[in-house]
Write the structure tokens for this entry.
Amino acid sequence: MMKKSLLRAVLIIWKKIVVPAGNIDGISSVNDRIKVTNPPSIKPKEPEKQLCTVKKGDYLSKIAKEVYEKANKYNIFLRPTSQC
């Protein structure tokens, strides 16, 4: 967790100091000397799989309200399986 916050701090410094310095007249280059030797690998979180029994009279927005707590998220069910 420490590596992630350190990387975030380095990026903030780089965006606020190094990038603007390179955009000033008379400065042809900026030697930032920032090296990230072992960047942390951040894997996307796997979505939880959840089974739902569809009963007569159910509709997508009703199921979305039960599963995602928002009825307007029904379009998640319309995605192809390869994107889920």
